[in-house]
Amino acid sequence: MFTVIGGTYFEVCLNPAWREVYGSGGRAAAAASRIVEMISKSRVLLRTCAEGELESQVRDTAASFGYDVEITPRDGMVEFQYIHGLSAPKLYQSRPGRARINLDRVETECALVFGMVEASPSVEANQIVFDPQSGELARLPSKEEISAKRLAIVANLKEARAMLQAVEPHSAPQELNSEVLAKSLLRLAGCEVVVVKNATEGAVVCSDGNLDHIPSVPIPTVFPIGSGDVFSSIFAAYWTVAGATPLDSARKAAAATALYCATRALPVPASPHLSAPKMTKVLVPPKAPKKHRAQVYLAGPFFNLPQLWLLNEARAALEEQGLVVFSPRDHVGELTHAKDMTKIADADIKGLVESDLVFALVDGFDPGTIFELGFARALKKPAVVFVSDLDPRHITMIEGSNCHVFRDFPTAIYQAAWMGKLE
Hints:
Number of strands: 18
Structural class: alpha/beta
Strand order of the largest sheet: 5-4-1-8-9-10-11-12-13
Number of domains: 2
CATH class of the largest domain: Alpha Beta
Oligomer: single chain
Number of helices: 12
Distance between the termini: 46 Å
CATH topology of the largest domain: UDP-N-acetylmuramoyl-L-alanine:D-glutamate ligase
Low-confidence stretches: 272-289
CATH superfamily of the largest domain: Ribokinase
């Protein structure tokens, strides 16, 4: 039996709009339900927690996706709120500070184990895939009540760094790239496989002395909430239930994740040969990877609090994707005297000329931002534009000059990152 142990939580996001009950456990069980049934002719079992008013919804969801569920009562609601799909979620609990739930120990053949907000899973299995789901608080499975003959760790870059630095505190964070982390964790965690995910950089799979890189799949629309849950779920289903190699399991997981991010659709199709989603339009054509980190010019107004907040969010998100960001506000400064106009304009244009692409925030139609965007297109530099609230008629020249316009913030960031990684 394939058992998923993980949380069930409310998820709310402003951009793109999202309000659902999933959590890592619920989403993973839904994602793998069809594949596990196809491979093993058995059903996924989800072990999770829920409060009384949510229990019926959790059972209805399980019935609709065709998996079984066992629920441990939880005292109060747990909700994650996102401002946008790439923001750090804010955790809300109706009973904050309550004692963690003691879960019964699970003994099963194959398991996918997630870190949980309200409980610490206790699991013994022949094969376990462990996904910490804890950000900078992530701990090695050896620090949890997890026992497996064959163990795999699937973690994002931040979680992998946290786990390694918990064991080797003097490791330099800037040197801990995906490859170094995967090799180090494989050595220290006593596991068989380590997969380190890194958004548009793709994933690294380390096992049996082999280190393989799986590139991310460019898609026209990106919904990132829960993407890691889907990756871990499909990887675990193929590695534990189907007996596939770690590399093949990770490739299928990457393709399934791309499909989910593009469509938000679950479960993942029951096919042993998952491929990248076939879309009518993909922004980035397949070309050779860049040999250097691309620089993106961040154009946008910063004259009031909402504008400055969005500018800072964009810079942080772009840097998180591995891009070098030139920000006029941070690298040149603001105008304080009229005599500085030429100096500031020259410095901004120099940064624009030296950048590989432009990321523009055009809500409000700031004249400086529109000028920078036009200047960039005159130089034939690619441009990604985020706009959340403008009449389409007002951006005719922007779209007509082959700028790539998105009203979804995560999609705009991902498209800029993919564009920046290609010649």
